[in-house]
From TrEMBL:
Species this protein is from: Rhodamnia argentea
Protein name as annotated: Uncharacterized protein LOC115749956 isoform X2
Region annotation (Disordered) ranges: 17-36
Source species, domain of life: Eukaryota
Classification via InterPro entries: LRR_dom_sf (IPR032675)
Length: 339
């Protein structure tokens, strides 16, 4: 009888009961699985990995790209040190609201063309751009009337440009007798950055910061988080010093795409304890040498062509066979012209 009850219990309850310890071990936190990349991200990654092969035809290829894909390709080109005037202008889209060309070879010419195309820009990062001067920044301010955030500095040349640009960022007023220019309309401001509110320049020195803040209180330089909440309550995300503007456009793309050239995106370096107020002597000599080298490049090319022509003439005078061939070719051309 007892043996029959035991068999009945085994049949009705086939699942053995686990002890509490084993159940706790098995009920751990769920394993988070990484989301597979989308097909679009994979395609953009392939394009970015072979970007140098299509740069010559990029303008025709990128015509059909959506604005976010163009931004992603530009971000990959910047990380691979392939971003220059031709590349960024070929990818430019009128709907862009941010522009990150930091550490690139874009110059004033390319930046001004960009500003003419992308007139809705709200944030621009030109940090570590040694080829951009006051002329390029002035072109951006002239075309982009919605610009709120400007990021600059990061290298001696860019710091020098940022220092020279402070004068054009300050507004000049029609009504100089008013109580405060903060309450004036944009029509009463004849020059300066009308809409600029945030300037990110980590290496600005203390005296320059105090003078600029006093003369232009509307623009906040290097915004900091609230001491109570440690959050950026007022500054937009584009004005945070540790944020890379184009990071959101490549977050789903494999980093190996731009590791081809061994480059990783760099953040703006922290302020130095003793910032330099001007370029060093060595940097001035380097820039002067580059300027002279670029100025003399056409002359050097002309001299090379002249030497080639002289060598050909000398060969004709010294080599009888070459001279005979040259005279024969001239004679054949003259006969053909007569007929």
């Amino acid at each position: 009888m007892e043996e029959g009850k035991a068999k009945f219990a085994a049949v009705t309850d086939p699942v053995p009961k686990l002890d509490s310890a084993s159940s706790l071990r098995s009920s751990g936190p769920p394993v988070k699985r990484s989301k597979p990349p989308s097909l679009v991200s994979l395609c953009v990654g392939v394009v970015g990995k072979h970007l140098e092969d299509i740069i010559t035809d990029l303008e025709e290829i990128a015509v059909t790209f959506p604005a976010d894909i163009k931004m992603a390709v530009a971000a990959i080109a910047r990380r691979r040190r392939l971003l220059d005037n031709n590349v960024i202008v070929s990818l430019a889209d009128g709907s862009w609201e941010i522009l990150d060309i930091s550490g690139s070879n874009v110059s004033d010419v390319g930046l001004i063309k960009l500003a003419g195309i992308c007139r809705s820009l709200r944030a621009v990062d030109i940090s570590r751009c040694a080829n951009i001067t006051v002329a390029g920044v002035s072109g951006v301010l002239q075309h982009c009337h919605s610009l709120e955030t400007l990021r600059c500095g990061g290298c001696p040349r860019s710091d020098y440009t940022a220092r020279c640009c402070l004068g054009i960022l300050k507004p000049k007023l029609h009504d100089v007798d008013g109580d405060s220019w903060e309450e004036l309309d944009a029509a009463e401001i004849i020059d300066g950055a009308h809409s600029l509110r945030w300037l990110v320049w980590p290496r600005i020195d203390k005296n320059t910061l105090e003078d600029f803040s006093a003369e232009c209180p509307r623009i906040t330089v290097n915004p900091k988080p609230s001491p109570f909440t440690q959050r950026w309550t007022q500054a937009p995300r584009e004005a945070w010093p540790d944020v890379i503007l184009d990071e959101t456009f490549v977050k789903d793309i494999d980093p190996e795409t731009w590791a081809v050239s061994g480059l990783r995106p760099r953040r703006i370096s922290a302020p130095l304890s003793s910032p330099t107020s001007e370029l060093s002597v060595a940097e001035k000599f380097r820039l002067a040498f580059l300027e002279r080298d670029n100025r003399l490049a056409p002359k050097r090319a002309k001299n090379v062509r002249q030497r080639q022509r002289r060598a050909e003439k000398e060969l004709m005078t010294m080599d009888t066979r070459a001279k005979a061939l040259a005279l024969a070719s001239k004679l054949s051309r003259s006969l053909n012209n007569r007929h």
